[in-house]
Amino acid sequence: MTSSDAALDLFAQLRREPDVEAPELVAVDATDRLLLDEAAGALAADPDRVVVLDDSHGALTLGAVVLHGAVAPRVSTDLLLGERALAANAERTGHAGSYRLLPLGPELVRGARTVLAKAPKGLDALRELAEVVAADADPDVTLFVGGRVKHMTHAMNDVLAASFTEVRASLGRQKSRVLIARGPRAGGTSSFPVCREHADLGITVCAHGAAFAGAKVDRGTQALLAVLADAVPDAATALDLGCGTGVLAAALATARPGLRVLATDQSAAAVASAQATAAASGLADRVTVSRDDAGSSLPDGSVDLVVCNPPFHSGVAVDETVAHRLFEGAARVLRPGGELWCVYNSHLPHRQALTRLVGPTRQVTRNPTFTITASTRR
Length: 378
Fold this sequence. Notes:
alpha/beta, Rossmann fold, 2 domains, 18 strands
């Protein structure tokens, strides 16, 4: 079997599940293929010191193992659904146990010679990734960062150049391109998490690079907090579902000292950020943060109140159904009569989904930008 045939055979078996499935969403894209091709020589030269970052659904990890002989590559995937898709695809293709999962940090990249990464959406996420690799990988490491051309900017080169002495771009192929960085700058350290005090809320928000909105408080969360200040229902236990940096969880815990507050997110960066926010705000003993998929680690009917500022993207693709997974999770963990308070962009038809998935839903407030609703668990 030729290498081309092997790639076709491997990639044909990969699926997105349990991540969102949709006709326009794929488990293997042109960026995965280009990254593996650009890194082929480096992978073959030192197959024992390979790291893969933010592999969407397993194409990079399994491609490195099956097509290029990588031995037990170390892997860090921010999103839990991507991590689970990788595991399912490894099992499906007969390569379970062929890689090691580690969090983003020194142990992940220590001594690495080849690092493959899918380009993150934000520059801060890329900056943290580059800083971690430059600080602890082998001095001869090569970092390959691949993305769709329409989502890549010259600023990404500048971010990589802050941590590496040499940065160049590959030729484009099928609307994808790879940035290749070498020569880690000596003495570099990670500048994350970044923390910012918000005196109006009485909390300090901390953020790792891939966390939504960074150390700021996004406008949707601000709108929901303004309503909750006066209208939050009585509750003994509250859940910040899809917590991001943990702003809602920390603000609720600060405003209501008797409230037990939980926070969950499938993003490892979000969980680390929310934990740092709780600690910096003096709430580490009041806010419990965990990484899971839509509250899956919590028992049925165990929560009185859920607050949620749901995403509406799957990667860079707009997908309204991403929020539906959170709504279904809220319905499961809420006790009968408990409420889900949700903020979302006003153009999205979430109210119908909330009524169907959770229960009777009333509009609390609405403006051209944001709508806030309260849904009562049937």
